[in-house]
Amino acid sequence: MRSVRARAALGATLVVALALAAAGLAVLLVLGANLTDQAGLQAEVAARETAGQLALGVPYDKLDMSDEEDHPVQVTDEDGRVVAVSKDLEAISGTGTGGVAPQRPPAATGDDDEERDDDDATADPARGEVSTDDPDFTHGTATVDGDRADYRFASVEATNPAGLTLTVHAGAPLAAEQRAVASVRGAMLAGLPVVLLVVAGVTWLVTRRALRPVEGIRREMAAITASEDLSRRVPEPGSHDEIARLARTTNETLTALEASVERQRRFVADASHELRNPIASLRTQLEVGAAHPGLLDVTGAVADTVRLQALAADLLLLARLDAGERPGAALLELGALVREEVSQRTGDRIPVTVSAPEAGGFEVTGSRAQLARVLGNLLDNAERHAHGAVAVAVRREGGGVVVEVTDDGAGVPEAERERIFERFVRLDDARTRDEGGAGLGLAIARDVAVRHGGRLRVSGAGERGARFALWLPDAR
């Protein structure tokens, strides 16, 4: 089932079906329990009416059980013998004994019987009583005048004036309860398919309407993929729901993708341009050397080769950074790294002043080679633009370590302070003074700083010059 609409309709239908089934079962159970309790109450009333007669000393054969068709009655003594039953009761179950033929208790002599009968006739009815305890309820069946049915039986104890404890079992029919439950169950079963069809149809229509903008987004994305035109955008619905946010996010992604592709195109074009010049120069020198060995400029050829090598290394590093390469996790002491890198720069035009306490405490984590590359690029930039002073300082700031490289050159115009970190960007002054730079040094420095969780910014250094501040999080 590939359609979201179909899955949503099926899921909603299943949930509603389960909910209706659970609710219907609960209704049937509650309805059945209530009707059963009502039948039990009717049985208790019938049992107490008969028990009241027994407590008043009414003989067994004189008991008034006129509604026996609806409430079959069975009376047993202490020994479980049946002493009285309602009229036309042919069979019974669920009362503890299935007897329906009244039995007289055995008597010792005829005189005793006559004396007992006289005593019964003259006994004080006040001596008998009906138990006030809650009756016992059971389910069973009874056959009255050939009709067998289910009943709810209530058992009530009574003591007659002679002191004999009797148990009255009276039943109330459960036919009404069974018919009501069956009727409700039938209505539920008949209505359930209709309700489920309505739920499925409404869910299908609502889902279809809700997903219509998604289909528009899909068609536009397919068209963008086919045309490769990243300037196109998907339609944004006027609603403020999840689909509208999806469309906005998709357009933002397309904007970022378009910018990334454009950046890659400029990168390739600029790289091709930067590579072409030293390659052409090197080829020209080699061709001249091949035709006229005495005119071969070996020094120039070596310089062009070094420039090509440095440019290729820069392009390779940028490619690795763009691919998301994670920096190393080595523990580095920036003060020691700065002193070591500056000590190796013996051919600088302007000596570098270092302010990095040897006491240490400037630990960061990352790639030593990449951070040394950042420091070297910053120093190269400062040497290129400084008039007579270049300084490096290391200090702690804001939970991290800052390395500042300053020079006393012309500085960077405020409007250009972010642009200089773009790839292959060189200001006019840099182009006139550049001795082989391709405009990648500062871009590489910022990318490496960001990959290490830090930042690289440029500001003015007093009245003149530039200050580049590299901030890296403390290793602790």
Distance between the termini: 54 Å
Biggest sheet, open or closed, and with what strands and sense? 7 strands, antiparallel
Helix-strand pattern, N to C?
A: HEEEHEEEEHHHEHEEHEEHHEE
Q: Give the rounded overall mean pLDDT.
A: 84
Alpha carbon gyration radius: 52 Å
How many helices? The count is 9
Q: Give the overall shape, derived from the CA principal axes.
A: elongated
Strand fraction equals: 15-25%
Question: How many independent structural domains?
Answer: 3
As a percent range, the share of helical residues equals 40-55%
List low-pLDDT spans: 107-125, 429-434
From the helix content, strand content and strand pairing, which structural class follows? alpha+beta
Annotation, overall tally of beta strands: 14
